[in-house]
Amino acid sequence: RMHGMSLGPADLAASRGMKTTRVGGGHPDYVVLADPGADPKAPRAAFQQDLWHYTVGKMVDACLAYGLKPFYGPFGDFADSAACESQFRNAFLQGCLGAWSLHPSQIEIAKRVFSPDVKEVA
Asked: How do residues 88-108 score in pLDDT, each as one tens digit?
């Protein structure tokens, strides 16, 4: 019997033909523009979006429907611990119970993100 499922973002990106720039990360051109201000010709702010938001949510829904534990896959840019923590936190907030760690530096990040706060268990 299966006990859990994890999302492999690099595998899924490859099968979809997605244009990602790093394993588990996004693409700098995947953005939405802010609404125009008073001057419609003025530059508008751009905000990068999470390529994996919808997919992680659907995976969590599928896992919960079948009694499986959802896990996030790897984040491959070992040098960018802030982005790794952000991606792990997004997965946690969507219902994932843990994530893969491909590098020793990611173990503490995963523990910090996926462990309950002391106040929650006191």
From this structure: 999 999 999 999 998 999 999
